[in-house]
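Hi V.,

You were right to ask for the full record rather than a summary. Here it is.
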Amino acid sequence: MNINDLLKTNVNEHTEKKNGLTYLSWAWAWAEALKADPAAMFKVEMFGDKCYMEINGTAMVWVTVTLFGKPMTCQLPVMDYKNKAISNPDAFAVNTAIMRCMTKALSLHGLGLYIYAGEDIPEEDAKPVKEEVKPEVKPEVKRAVPEEIEGYDMGWQIKLTMPQDDSKEWVDLLKTSTRILFDTAKRQKDITDIFKVNRNIYDHLKSINPEEHKSLMAEFAKAKSLFKE
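Predicted structure:
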């Protein structure tokens, strides 16, 4: 077993969450370290006669783990259940911090490192999923072109199939078709007839897109104002 094997090891079944942090069982982690390297060892760094460094009334423990002949040192504050540094910690709190620090130092060798990276699974399991890119399917809309819009003598009818939902393309086609008719109109009555003949289409527009309907009705008003009766 080597570092790459440790990096790929899934440790999720041996963890527990407390106050938003994920903790790996130190006993299980150390057993895995010994399986990987029977010569594995860890050392609690001493500061005079104390196994922790005093920092403004709180404590920081330091642990060095040697695996595959390589020492890695990690530090960890002595914390309470709220993950806050403890002032004048007792022996139990210091011992808990030391074993957690040892486990954290093991992660520097690869075991459970993904936990500290904020990930849920190790790199072996985190294989990227290649998404299938599907071609965009555009809704079939009968396009309105001049020859599909009947002229003045035929009643100003716009020939468009009404969609079930708010199709931007359909709305644009309807507006374009209406403007073509505006350009053909010769008097205010023509503008009124355009609306009356195609009222069912405009009512449908109102039901699926009130804002676009309001905008188009404003264009009707403007088109009528261009003629003096």
